[in-house]
């Protein structure tokens, strides 16, 4: 566990800005695994981030810069434990 914590600390910058629960800006995005109107699953420099809500739309995605902008009714932001090696989207979603 100590090794994982150290590797997470040395990861690149990662920021979240949530405005009025309707607009979310995320930096440090490495990949978007899946998205629909109710959930967006993305890999960031600090772990797997799951955004849940209603009428979610990705307004901007720049993987070169690691930036993502989401609009919609945002209900929750959840980080998953070391996401990539724990299985697919549904394995993480239904834990």
Tell me what the structure shows.
The chain has helices at residues 2-9, 89-93, and strands at residues 15-19, 23-27, 29-35, 39-44, 47-62, 67-80. Strands 1-2-6-5-4-3 form a 6-stranded antiparallel beta sheet, with no helix packed on it. With 95 residues, the chain is mostly beta strands. The protein is built from 2 helices and 6 strands, in the order αββββββα. The protein is globular and about 30 Å long.
Give structural attributes.
95 residues; 2 helices
Short summary of the structure?
It is built from two helices and six strands.
Can you lay out the helices and strands and say which pair or pack?
Elements lengths: L1 H8 L5 E5 L3 E5 L1 E7 L3 E6 L2 E16 L4 E14 L8 H5 L2
Outline type: globular
Unreliable sequence segments: none
Roughly how many Å apart are the termini? 20 Å
Q: Output the strand order for the largest sheet.
A: 1-2-6-5-4-3
> How much of the residues is beta strand, in percent?
over 45%
Task: Note the run of SSEs as H and E.
Answer: HEEEEEEH
What would the average pLDDT be, to the nearest integer?
85
Q: Report the total helices.
A: 2
> How many beta-strand segments?
6
Given helix and strand content, the structural type is mainly beta
Please bin the fraction of helical residues.
10-25%
In terms of quaternary structure, the protein is single chain
